[in-house]
Design a protein that fits this description.
815 residues, binds 1,4-dihydronicotinamide adenine dinucleotide
Length: 815
């Protein structure tokens, strides 16, 4: 048989090698050694580490490990460049971004080959996915640069941004960081991952060639310590990080209290759900892409396959057959599906996790296919017979390993899918549009792909829920994390306490709580007699948990002082009360799926019922805060107005439909965070709480509120208004007591999804640090004078944006 006839017979691929030479020539032109790119120039190479080709272990280049001094130099350059860069018109900045996009396209093959050499990913992917998406990102953001002032009025860039990226999509992650930062008017210091810095260095050269003003983009190479030096540098205004959840948490803790902006794009354990009515062949092809694209080293990899039980056997048989046709080999071979993992350490990590999976009872399937004898190669793997608590079902493996479980009903699929601390992405396959659109909103993930997977576009935000991080990359949402209100920069430190605030009391003893009688004013300069209580019976306002009045678990209460002496008592809340309140708030999460129209009606009703009792509320404010009657009346009137404002917003702050260049739309749905802890400021006893509570519940969050510590009685009165306004039980819970310790408990509680805290700088820092456990989204006042009475600033999207997260649901079309 001649050669051609043989090929027709076997249908085998021949080798289709891509030449590494142009990339090697570029490295050689730099002498195989690189310094950093700072202030538009290359620094002399410093203490070196090697960048190797994971497919063959050969050294590609020597890179410099960035020191704290290098980082400082880069920050100084970025700071010096900021003023000029931010002052350029959007059109001027847009032209630079456009020029970058053009250069990336012009040199796309060089970028693709260099990327595959350095990272080990198949050339097919770097050439057809990574680099085209990089160019698209810069084009798209050239447009945002131009439109910034029109589309984001009143917002300004942060200043100098420190950006740290991982090794799985080296140039793509760079573009996701640098393009929006520059479009918004920031300057940057970017640290590529130590395994894969080469395309970032080629990018730096391009910045030089297009004449980007010096200092706007600085690239500092190095390992974790270089990243730490960036995170801890005092003159950096914002940190953007993509990488492991572990390092993301360390960065959250390190930046707590610094006032730095922070966005985190972290790990995932994304579900890939196949319903029995799915187009199985398409679902199989999708799965190949979901878990074996980039050797499975993808933060949003569909690594947990959930198959409906009725089709499990058939689906797995098809899958195994398909796995046996995958080709593992030289990343520069255009006919290869799976290349090399990034480094030996990752091969060891993946292998170890697979061993653990088998030891815990999983059944491993590996197809009998050829794998190169050396280099960082692994076969595609499938582990079945896994239970949801097994290590391989909960830990991010970050390799070509699929873990399979089955489900019976759609509800079970949702429960299994959400049974993870992460929430980056989810995929679902069904030919039933009703089912698909019912399931998508129920998945706790920032991106949901229906009948498709791993779709990305610069116009569509990408980012996670829960421990997958916060902030979005791409589109309008992605721009928003590089901008902040102009007025924030001018905020002054909050003033000292008011005279009444100084009368804050200490908790009484249990004995006192049992006997609610006593004097009205705390004696100064002496220890307070624990038997001192309010001067009238029945003055201990209860807390409000799960729609019921609740006594404090501690059995203690605290005196509330007013202008003319003791006004009453409130419960001394403790951890147990917070736990109960969080439990009640979680049980009430159905509030988030109530029609926005209904939430609006309830907010209007709240306003109306408050208005009926305005005199009584004004009197209470006056008595507590010692303000004039007119000021107190004004606070009530403003509170009513604020409730009206957020009733108005409830059904208007909604999503968008993006049009990516694909036969799909992406529905950007605005969803609540979940349970929101709110620590109200000491001042403005009523408005201070409601200004935060109203946007939170308007967007469908349920709330655990710590009202003003010195003046809590307005909010303990307010729950009567809640009760008469059809607010469902548990949607709003009120716990009184020591604001700082209750704030800490809320921050540490994993059932709380977000936390807003008006507090002095040190308590704000404590709250941010204590929130790392489940990476809850925090907003703190950092001891600054946020005037919540300012309707212009706080009557709209400032808190609405913080009360929500965007989920992008990709919906394909076309028969
Ligand atoms: P990593 O999170 O340590 O590295 C990501 C980047 O952070 C790199 O540029 C690194 O130099 C830098 N870095 C490390 N420590 C730092 C610190 N303390 N402060 C500031 N920057 C720091 O990820 P690594 O160790 O390379 O991979 C380990 C595992 O992390 C993977 O197996 C995978 O499970 C996960 N991972 C997840 C990624 C994702 O996109 N979700 C990306 C990379 C890794």
């Amino acid at each position: 048989m001649n050669e051609i006839a043989k090929i027709f017979e076997t249908l085998e691929y021949g080798p289709a090698p891509e030449s590494p030479q142009p990339a090697l020539d570029w490295l050689a032109a730099h002498g195989g050694r690189f310094g950093h790119f700072i202030d538009g120039k290359w620094t002399a190479p410093g203490e070196a580490f090697a960048s190797t080709n994971p497919a063959n272990g050969k050294v590609l280049a020597e890179l410099s490990g960035g020191t704290a001094a290098d980082v400082d130099k880069a920050v100084k350059a970025a700071r010096a460049a900021f003023k000029g860069w931010a002052a350029l018109s959007g059109f001027e900045r847009g032209k630079y971004l456009y020029a970058i996009a053009r250069e990336v396209q012009k040199h796309s093959r060089l970028f693709a080959v260099l990327e595959s050499l350095d990272n080990g990913k198949p050339i097919r992917e770097s050439r057809d996915v990574d680099i085209p998406l990089v160019a698209r990102h810069f084009y798209h953001h050239a447009g945002w640069a131009q439109l910034r002032d029109r589309e984001f009025p009143g917002l300004v860039p942060y200043g100098v941004c420190g950006q740290i990226i991982p090794w799985n999509f080296p140039l793509l992650m760079l573009s996701w960081k640098i393009a929006p930062a520059l479009a918004a008017g920031n300057t940057v210091i970017l640290k590529p991952a130590e395994f894969t810095s080469l395309t970032a260095l080629l990018f730096a050269e391009i910045c030089g060639r297009i004449g980007l003003p010096k200092g706007v983009v600085n690239i500092v190479t190095g390992e974790g310590e270089t990243g730490e030096a960036i995170v801890n540098h005092p003159d950096i205004d914002k940190i953007a990080f993509t990488g492991s959840t572990e390092v993301g948490k360390a960065i959250r803790a390190a930046t707590a209290g610094s006032g730095k902006g922070l966005s985190l794009e972290l790990g995932g354990k994304s579900p890939y759900i196949v319903f029995e009515d799915a187009d199985l062949d398409s679902a199989i092809e999708g799965l190949v892409d979901a878990i074996w694209f980039n050797q499975g080293q993808v933060c949003c990899a569909g690594s947990r396959l959930l198959v409906q039980e009725s089709i499990e056997e058939r689906f797995l048989a098809k899958l195994k057959k398909r796995m046996a046709t995958l080709r593992v080999g030289d990343p520069l071979d255009k006919a290869v599906d799976i290349g090399a993992l990034v480094a030996p350490v990752q091969v060891a990590r993946v292998t170890e996790l697979v061993k653990k999976g088998v030891a815990e009872g999983g059944t491993l399937y590996e197809p009998d296919i050829d794998v190169p004898g050396s280099g960082c190669f692994l076969r595609p793997m499938l582990i079945s017979d896994v239970s949801p608590a097994n290590t391989v079902a909960t830990e991010e493996i970050f390799g070509p390993v699929l873990v399979e479980m089955s489900f019976r009903t759609p509800d079970e699929a949702v429960a299994l899918a959400n049974n993870t601390r992460y929430g980056l992405a989810a995929t679902l396959w069904s030919e039933n549009i009703n089912l698909a659109l019912d399931i998508a909103p129920r998945l706790k993930a920032g991106v949901v792909w229906i009948n498709g997977t791993n779709q990305f576009d610069a116009a569509v935000g990408f980012g996670g829920y829960r421990e997958s991080g916060f902030g979005r990359e791409g589109g309008r949402e992605g721009m928003a994390v590089y901008l902040k209100p102009a007025w924030e920069k001018a905020l002054k430190p909050a003033g000292g306490q008011s005279p009444v605030d100084k009368l804050r009391t200490k908790p009484k003893t249990a004995a006192a709580a049992m006997s609610p009688h006593g004097e009205s004013v705390e004696p100064r300069g002496r220890a307070r007699n624990p038997l001192d209580t309010a001067d009238r019976l029945d003055q201990t306002a209860k807390m409000y948990i799960g729609g019921k009045q609740a006594r404090p678990d501690s059995g203690y209460s605290r005196l509330v002082h007013g202008r003319d002496g003791v006004l009453g008592e409130v419960g001394e809340g403790n951890r147990k009360d917070i736990r109960n309140a969080v439990e009640a708030a979680r049980a009430a999460l159905g509030w988030g799926t109530t029609a926005a129209h209904n939430r609006a009606q309830i907010l209007y009703f709240l306003a109306e019922n408050l208005e009926y009792r305005r005199k009584e509320f004004a009197e209470r404010i006056r008595a507590q805060a010692g303000v004039t009657a007119a000021a107190a009346e004004n606070e009530v009137a403003q509170t009513v107005e604020r409730l009206f404002a957020f009733a108005a917003w409830a059904d208007k702050y909604d999503g968008a439909v993006h049009n990516p260049p694909a036969r799909a739309i992406a529905a950007a749905m605005v969803e609540p965070l979940g349970v929101l802890g709110i620590v109200a400021p000491p001042e403005l006893p009523l408005l201070g709480s409601v200004a935060l509570l109203a946007p939170a519940i308007a967007m469908g969050n349920t709330v655990v509120l710590i009202p003003s510590e010195p003046h809590p009685l307005s909010m303990t009165d307010f729950y009567q208004v809640l009760e008469t306004s059809d607010v469902p039980s548990g949607a709003v819970n009120i716990v009184t007591g020591d604001a700082a310790s209750l704030a800490r408990t809320l921050a540490e509680h994993d059932g709380v999804d977000g936390l807003w805290c008006c507090a002095p700088a040190e308590i704000s820092a404590m709250v941010e640090k204590a929130s790392v456990g489940n990476l809850k989204q925090t907003w703190t006042s950092r001891g600054l004078a946020f005037d919540l009475a300012d309707t212009e600033r706080f009557g709209g999207d400032y808190f609405l944006a913080k009360a929500t997260q965007v989920k992008n649901v990709w919906i394909p079309y076309g028969a």
